[in-house]
Amino acid sequence: MAKEDPPSTSKDLQELQKKLSLLVESIQNNSKVVAFMKSLVGQYLDRHPFLALSVLVFVAMSAVPVGFFLLIVVLTSLAAFVGVILLEGLVISVGGLSLLCVLCGLSFVSLIMSGTIIVSYIVVSSLVNYWFPPRHTWEDGIHQLHNTY
């Protein structure tokens, strides 16, 4: 009952798969990535992919608030050299508490986003496998028959 896809669609998907596999291979062969994956942290994150994705999303989302906080710290430090020492302590304290609140919220949001990404990946990969089942050619059958004997 499934419709046959036009040949260009399957060729486009195969080309996209080749490009993605080359990209993943180039990332995996990077010397810095290899060194990180040999470390204890890399091995731990390799065994816990959901935690690795959560950490990645958290770091990516917390870069902007941390950057704003550091900018405020630098600007208030410059103001302190001018003579506003009490204001600096107040602003850094308020900024630190605000950063703490934002990072706690971002950790919760990053866990939710990681879960959503994982569920979306599972659903999309299941749908792709349902819509485009792997096709076995006549040559594949002969190779399998030849390998069993």
From TrEMBL:
Question: Mind telling me which residue stretches traverse the membrane in this protein?
Answer: 50-72, 78-104, 111-132
Its domain of life?
Eukaryota
Q: Please state where this protein is localized.
A: Endoplasmic reticulum membrane; Lipid droplet
Q: Does the keyword rRNA processing apply?
A: no
Q: How does it sit in the membrane?
A: Multi-pass membrane protein
One cellular component term (GO) for this entry is: lipid droplet
Q: Which terms are listed as keywords in the entry?
A: Endoplasmic reticulum, Lipid droplet, Membrane, Transmembrane, Transmembrane helix
Extract the InterPro entries matched here.
Answer: LDAF1
Family according to the record: Belongs to the LDAF1 family.
Name listed for the protein in its UniProt record: Ankyrin repeat and sterile alpha motif domain containing 4B
